[in-house]
């Protein structure tokens, strides 16, 4: 019997599915010489806090993995190469009544398909302020918080998550929206969200790495099937950024229990071949892998020096 062609049934290509970031990351680091596989955070159950008051009466904050721009830390501009010198290692906060220049050069977002020119794609403060002005939420909390992207589960669980919780409690935060960018960012925000929910604060994560978030078992997750670095919507597409935040708010209201994932209906493009590129060893030559290993080692040294300082 002959197999019907995919186009007869309207099937999508197999690669047009959520990018397997955990496996890609394992394969990639093995290919550049790091043979000890990274242990991704894995839980089978998640804490869950229902909203304690309607969103229209709630104080909402943002937790981001983006870093404040610091001109002394090298190239952090659009299209900048990975810049370990721009990483931060302690939780920080920012005044939500002011504009902020937050950037993502310090993390592994999708540099081939994302130029990182519009921070509205990773920092939804403008949309949250609009939601407040429209009465969709009660108010924006006085501060947002920056979560360090730590590969160390212990540091995130024992230091950073409790620090963020303490700041949320000090600001009387009712709800937290968490926005990761890179693969490890997604794990970081998952662990922070779990900690906040365990301590009474409802959360929703807006992200692009479905496998990492669901592996860590979070309360609520809005999945946008976009390249990493676009968890809050498409660049220079205010309508998509507004819709993405609204979907996250609806998920906060509608989730009846933990581990609830909602998928955004928005598509990055009709051509899904971008999903084949990120850290895909099958598409990298031995020379390119060697170059990346050398660059990775260089950035590790820079980051180690900054951490010690």
Features:
alpha/beta; Glycine/sarcosine/betaine reductase selenoprotein B (GRDB)
Continuous helix count:
8
H/E element sequence: HHEEEEHEEHEHEHEHEH
Beta-strand residue fraction: 5-15%
Helix content: 25-40%
The tally of domains stands at 2
Distance between the termini: 68 Å
Largest sheet geometry:
8 strands, mixed
Radius of gyration: 19 Å
Oligomer: single chain
Overall morphology: globular
As residue ranges, the low-confidence spans are: none
Tell me, rounded to a whole number, the average pLDDT. Answer: 94
What structural class should be given to the helix and strand makeup? alpha/beta
Strand runs, count: 10
Please provide a brief summary of the model:
The chain is α/β, with parallel strands linked by helices.
Describe the structure.
The chain has helices at residues 6-9, 21-31, 125-133, 153-170, 183-198, 210-216, 238-254, 286-308; strands at residues 59-64, 67-68, 92-95, 102-103, 139-140, 143-146, 175-179, 203-207, 220-223, 260-263. The protein is of the alpha/beta class. The strands form two sheets. Strands 1, 3, 5, 6, 7, 8, 9 and 10 form an eight-stranded mixed β-sheet that branches. α4 packs across α5 (183-198). It is globular. The protein starts with 5 loop residues before the first helix and ends with a helix.
């Amino acid at each position: 019997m002959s197999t019907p062609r995919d186009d007869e049934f309207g099937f999508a290509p197999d690669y047009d599915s959520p990018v397997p970031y955990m496996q890609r990351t394992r394969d990639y680091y093995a290919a550049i010489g790091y043979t000890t596989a990274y242990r991704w955070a894995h839980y089978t159950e998640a804490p869950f806090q229902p909203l304690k008051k309607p969103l229209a009466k709630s104080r909402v904050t943002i937790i981001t993995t983006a870093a404040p721009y610091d001109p002394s830390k090298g190239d952090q501009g659009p299209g900048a190469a990975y810049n370990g010198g721009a990483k931060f290692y302690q939780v920080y906060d920012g005044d939500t009544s002011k504009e902020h220049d937050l950037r993502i050069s310090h993390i592994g977002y999708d540099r081939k398909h994302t130029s990182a020119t519009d921070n509205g794609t990773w920092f939804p403060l403008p949309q949250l302020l609009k939601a407040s002005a429209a009465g969709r939420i009660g108010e924006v909390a006085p501060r947002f918080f920056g979560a360090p992207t730590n590969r160390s589960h212990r540091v995130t669980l024992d230091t950073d998550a409790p620090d963020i919780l303490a700041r949320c409690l000090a600001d009387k935060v009712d709800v937290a929206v968490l926005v990761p960018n890179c693969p490890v960012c997604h794990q970081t925000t998952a662990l922070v969200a779990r900690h906040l929910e365990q301590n009474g604060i409802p959360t929703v994560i807006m992200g692009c790495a479905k496998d990492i978030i669901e592996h860590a078992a979070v309360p609520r997750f809005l999945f946008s099937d976009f390249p990493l670095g676009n968890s809050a919507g498409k660049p220079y597409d205010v309508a998509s950024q507004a819709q993405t935040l609204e979907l996250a708010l609806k998920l906060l209201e509608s989730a009846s229990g933990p581990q609830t994932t909602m998928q955004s209906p928005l598509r990055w493009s009709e051509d899904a071949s971008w999903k084949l590129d990120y850290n895909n060893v099958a598409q990298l030559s031995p020379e390119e892998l060697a170059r990346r290993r050398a660059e990775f080692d260089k950035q590790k040294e820079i980051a180690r020096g900054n951490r010690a300082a």
